[in-house]
Amino acid sequence: MDNSTILETKDLNLWYGQKHALIDITVRIPKKTVTALIGPSGCGKSTLLRCCNRMNDLIDSSRITGNVLFNGEDIYDGHADAYAVREKIGMVFQKPNPFPKSIYENVAYGPRIHGVREKGALDRIVEESLKGAALWDEVKDRLHEPALALSGGQQQRLCIARSLAVEPEVILMDEPCSALDPIATGKIEDLIIRLARNYTVVIVTHNMQQAARVSEYTGFMYMGELIEFDETSRIFEDPGEELTENYITGRFG
Ligand SMILES: Nc1ncnc2c1ncn2[C@@H]1O[C@H](COP(=O)(O)OP(=O)(O)OP(=O)(O)O)[C@@H](O)[C@H]1O
Question: pTM for this one?
Answer without folding.
Answer: 0.95
